[in-house]
Amino acid sequence: MSIRSRRRGKNPDAGKLILTTGVLKDDQFSSPKQIRWASALGKLLVLNGGSTVNFQIRNADLSFSSKFFYTTSVTIGAIDSDISNIYTSVGGTGTFVRKWSHQFDLITSANILGNGGVRMIDASGDPDYIYVTSNNATDGHGVRKVRKSDMTVVASILATGAGDGQFNNPLGVKYYDGFVYVCDVTNARIVKLNALGANLTFDSNLSAGGNAFNDLDTDGTYWYGQGALRTFKRNMDFTVVSDSDVNNGYSLCIIPDQGDGYGATLAIVDNANSHLERRKCSDLSAINSVGSAGDGSSSLCDPVITGPAGTWRDSEGNSYAVASGANISKNGFSGDFFRQTPNRMTYQPTGRLSDITAIDANTDAIVGEIKNLRKCVNCTSYKLYGNPAYVVNLTDISSKATIVQIYSCGLGVIPADLSKCTSANDIRLQDNSWTQTQIDQFIQWIYAGRAGFTDAGRSMRIGLNNAAPSGTYTDPSVTPGNGSSNSDWSWDAGLGYHLPLTPNAMVWRLLHAVEGGVSSWASFTTA
User: Fold this and answer.
1) Nearest to residue 136, comparing CAs of 158, 120, 166?
2) What is the spatial distance between Cα 399 and Cα 243, in angstroms, rounded to a whole number?
């Protein structure tokens, strides 16, 4: 027996539907809460709230890097990191703080608030402690000091009011040079606390000039604060240096100089308008912004498969068992980090691939091809549009397909044979950047195989960003008229009607009764 034959065995992917996803670009935000610079990562951490709770890792220029999803039932109130770990609040009432490694492995989860209400976290300044603001009515508004090593609360100041050592809606918190500075929002001031050792005591109230700071950060020379409508630059005693208007600010942090000519910059969360903004620290002028409202799910790979239950697995080692109507979106691999691209996804059905009856994989960042698609021989619906790098071969489509929607994809090669799609009554192949030569060739193939398309309700769409077919779409009985011919039509005296010469003329013929009086197409859109 040869070495080759001994090694030959059953293909482990034979019974799986396999697809590969590209970069999971996500520039959508839903009530973004807090933004922090993670020095160990050289990246930004952005807390995204709303109904789909996640935090994103973004590059210094605000571009997307990766994303972590919690389950939809979890609420996160705050996020920050130090040189070793990431800290997030979590829980329906925000009572827990979770400690993660920078590789996003969960280390511990500690209940530090009896009644919840976490607002923001600072973990970057003090090497031994994190500081957590909260606004719970039962415990009182204030701040807790939590030891990093064991996540134990060692000190706290919790009192609601406007007096010394009291707070009304505390938000941003920052440790600097032995003191903790807290944004006391409703009281429109900065509360300075002495953080010597394991203690936390009141020091003084600092005037914010009548402005309510939601968040703050410092480079040791200036303070930068974020209000609801303005970004503030202050001296270290909080006297005015300069201000700049923003749409709706909530949180900010300092990005160290990236060598791009801007010097140190500010990253700002615009909570109300669901975007991020970057500004120069030097003069607070705007550099760029990114983002729009949404949960970002359209940037993920979340195909819905109708048919047998099965298991999704990805190349990061995540596994997710699903019932019929499978998906691998935020409701699938929730609690996992999407950070590896390209990412190979496999679906292993409990039965056979032939049991799959529909595949909906629109806008899923699919690259290459979907392997073993041809084995889904009983699939009746294919919705594979919105994947520009996806290369599809129509010969993989089942002859039982009634819906074939493959547009805005990588259909660079025109399929030479649509005979397997004769059962389809909804075919959409538009917006694939076909040239006129390709469009003409495609229509000629359709016309040549017209006898196989017998459903009177059939529709075809090949317009939108595809070139227009050559020739003229016109009624041949009028132009050139019965008995006459021109560049589009040739009169056939024996048949008693015109034969089309150009693709546009062929489209006219496909839409009008001829050859037995039956029209094969209810619509055939080429514009």
Assistant:
1) 158
2) 65
The DSSP code sequence of 32-72 is EEEEEEETTTTEEEEEE-SSS-EEEEE-TTS-EEEEEE--T
Domain boundaries, the chain: 31-293, 351-525
Beta bridge partners of 15: none
Which range has the worst mean pLDDT, 123-132, 229-238, 511-520?
511-520
Q: What is the CATH number of domain 31-293?
A: 2.130.10.10
The whole-chain average pLDDT of the chain stands at: 84
Residue in 402, 311, 298 with CA at minimum distance from that of residue 351: 311
Q: Which residues of 107-134 are buried (b: 16+ CB within 10 A; e: fewer)?
A: eeebebbeebbbbbbbbbbbeebbbbbb
In order of 116, 145, 233, 475, the CA distances from 75 in angstroms are: 11, 21, 32, 63
- HSE-CB at 386 with a 13 A cutoff on CA atoms is 14
Packed helices 436-448 and 503-510: angle between N→C axes, nearest 10 degrees = 40
Segment among 16-25, 80-89, 109-118, 515-524 with least mean pLDDT: 515-524
Look-up of token digits 């109230």: 205
Q: How long is the chain? A: 527
User: 351-525 sits in which CATH class?
Assistant: alpha beta
Report residue 51's pLDDT band, with 50, 70 and 90 as the boundaries.
low
Tens-digit pLDDT profile for residues 243-280: 888 777 889 999 999 999 999 999 999 888 888 999 99
- Rounded CA separation 236/258 (Å): 24
For residue 519, give both structure tokens.
């029209």
pTM of the model as a whole: 0.67
Average pLDDT for 473-502 = 95
Q: Where are the alpha helices (DSSP H) in 349-409?
A: none
